[in-house]
Write a structure and sequence with these properties.
Layout lengths: L14 H27 L6 H26 L12 H4 L1 H15 L3 H9 L3 H10 L7 H16 L2 H18 L2 H14 L4 H17 L1 H11 L2 H6 L1 H22 L4 H19 L1 H16 L1 H23 L1 H4 L2 H16 L1 H36 L2 H40 L1
Helix pairs in contact: 1-2, 1-20, 2-20, 4-19, 5-19, 6-18, 7-16, 8-16, 8-19, 9-14, 10-13, 11-13, 14-15
Length: 420
Amino acid sequence: MRRTRPPRASEAPPAGLVRMRWIAGGLLVVMAITFLVTRAYAPTYPALGFVRAFAEAAMVGGLADWFAVTALFRHPLGLPIPHTAIIPRNKDRIGTTLAAFLRDNFLIPGVVARRMRRVDVAGAAGRWLANPPGGDGRIRRGAAGLATHMLEAFDQQRLGGVVKAGIGARLRALDVSPLLGQALTAAMAEDRHLPLLDGIVKWGARLLAANEQVIRQMVSDRAGTVMRWTGLDETLATKIIDGLNGLLTGIAEDPEHPLRAKAEEALATLAHDLVHDPEMRARVAAVKGEIIDNPAMQRWLDGLWEQARGGMLRIARNPDKLLAGPVGDALRQLGGTLQTDPKLRRTINRFVRRTVVGMAADYGDAIVRLVSETIQGWDAGTITRRLENAVGRDLQYIRVNGTLVGGLVGLVIHAVDVTL
């Protein structure tokens, strides 16, 4: 049996909702008292019949609207009356319907593309960055609060899974082999590979110095008894070590050393194969897939998402800090450029439009599923509290209106009855 967790502080009824409940309930009580009083004195004072008719009809209208409003969220008076507690009983259908609404009206690529053509994202961002809202910053704080609530409201495991899956899909679709080949070719053309070769030579020298005793032991183990008795094994090991040291020193000091040329030839061949050899590209793709599937890589992606989410939350909770200091100056300069450079603005808007349309096409179903599963994962108490806090104040106005309109209808009917 699922246990209903207690409401968080953020889910407590807003003050406006509580006030309207008291007003609507108090008005109903006033009508009930008025009805009882006028009913007792109506035979003595016939004019009170109008007040009684008003109070009686108002009481009926108020009770009917109280029942209707209450039936949306719970059973009135705790009685299991049919077709009450509508929202808790249908929370799964509400989640599915909301998800379908998002998919059919917002996440269709064609719909997204048409709407994004009318949105000047770059211009709006430029105006905001160049001249952030001043005064009390209510717009900035409101947007920051909305972003914070959105980041905190979504199921972080599911949302993180969507983000991680998206990054993984992009990495898998990326053909890194030609990029590596082109980067290596460009580096060699500008001699930027030479520090790499020098580093390999220095690493080899350090490795040789650290394992000198191992080499001597290997030579001694493979030498015959006569060589060990005469000490030739030690002489041979010294010659080998000196020869290797000399070779590494020569490679390090002579830019025209033959082995350097061989190494550069091998790098050039590797760069060519990375771009043009299907077998090499397939091997690189296989290695890339193994790296992506490695648990360590998955943990790194999890950490990357958590760091990004934490950074977004820090910015959302303190938007003024982002716009202060050198970062703020750079952002304001960027905002001015966005306003004065129409070509840059068109480029950014086109990029944003294509990105949003691509996200809708690639991840629309995942976003819809995330919304549906998040709502379905809430218990009945949670969804009832959140919806009631969101629209409950307006529903209490309905109760007030129902009481007053009912009273006016009763008054009209009584007046007609008296006239006839």
